[in-house]
Amino acid sequence: MISVKEAKSLIQEQVVSLPLHHVPLAIAAGATLGADIYAKTDIPAFEQSSMDGYAIRFDERDLPLTINGEMQAGADHQFTLLPEQAARIFTGAALPHGADTVVMQEKVEVKNGILTVLDDQLSPGASVRRKGAEAEAGALAMQKGCKLTPAAIGFLAGIGYTDVEVCQTPAVAIIVTGKELQRPGEELAFGQVYESNSYSLTAALELAQITRINFYSADDQLDELTAVLQEALAANDVVLLTGGVSVGDYDFVLRAAVQAGVTQVFHKVKQKPGKPLYFGKTEKQLVFGLPGNPSSVLSCFYQYVLPALEKMTSYKSNINDGGPGSMKIQEAILTHDYTKGAGLTHFLKAHYNDGNVTPLSAQESFRMSSFAQANCMIELAEEETLAAAGTKVKIYIFPE
Description:
alpha/beta; Molybdopterin biosynthesis moea protein, domain 2; Molybdenum Cofactor Biosythetic Enzyme, Chain A; 6-stranded mixed sheet
């Protein structure tokens, strides 16, 4: 067995980022930006009014001003404002040459073509959008690693982009193994249990913006599992197997992986839950053999699979700040004593609130009721035997 730290390091060594690809901006929502974006030109490209009103020279605000012309948004020409003149102007229009301030139309009086400013709070440059205020030509406009939200899409369109380079998302296979498994909603026969791992894994993948998910199932037979694994490897970047990674008579994942051409990187980690975790690779694919117990599956996914997926998709972030579908890592004050044996790192289902964290009951690997109530996971180092109330512990806050 290897340590949790060693297992995480070995996985990260094997992960290679998927190549970037260009997509039209119109279909890029939800993707992760794969390259820095630089402004092609100043946005706005000219001094621009932010409201309907009158363009003036600020220094002439106390003088009667003759209204001479107007500027509409989209006007294809610009004129010069002479001394003691004002111009009618509309939202989005370019300022006339010589003007530096816009007065709201509600703060003026106009009689016989003469404008009087009534705004004693007027400041220089009021209601003027400066050239390059949104983005200056050549400046970094958006960093790689940003999620392309609706606002980000609008911003990029607003600075003239029609397509972007984004991170590819991997295709992920979920292979469910076990003769005893029955679909939820069907009647259970003697010896059967409902299959839930594919549901929790799918939900976790979708929160991480992974939508290319393919499902497979295999009985507890070596030939069948090998064939299913080969099929999954042919069509996916990452394969997640649930169950069959222990050393029982009907645990065939390790042997099937060898026959399917997967090279083992490690098997078994000094942790609880999830000690039988398996990790292997082919030339291009990653293979995770997750223990079958539901709590072990999800715990191993968060600790090992999710960070690998983030690296594959070139998502670059400060992990402590979290990212789309990521866990936020921080410290919290333990509210209750917790004792454990030395030799295994423990990941405890817990609830975090306002700087404090409480371990929940029902920590057994087959139980999901406490996991369903948890919003975080506590990590206790393998050499620890007592985590005392009032001490700081490392926690992983689950994605939402």
